[in-house]
DUF6924 domain-containing protein
Amino acid sequence: MRVEEVLARVGGLVDRRNAGFTADQLQALIGRDEEDWPDSAFLLIADEQGLTSAEFPLLAVNNLPDEDDDPFRITLAAAGSFIVNLELGNTSFGDWARGADTDGVYREQHY
């Protein structure tokens, strides 16, 4: 799979009416298929905390039903690698969560 194909699959839920929603509220807006599998395996949320930081740390939330990984933040600079590696199956959400710094932000880039 080419990077362009992966990025084309990354959708957005951009609506100012969702401002202030919690991760749980945003997860409830994600569509599901006939087997109750979510249309998006993870969410990257640009919330107030992320928008007010120079690193723009997005809130990463695992949206898969059988996984209980804790959310973490990931810098915008590292987010592209995160998306591609998850989509390709090179890494798991938990791999990235465990790599977050002590402040809960993942900063390392993998290309």
Remarks:
- The two ends are 15 Å apart (CA to CA).
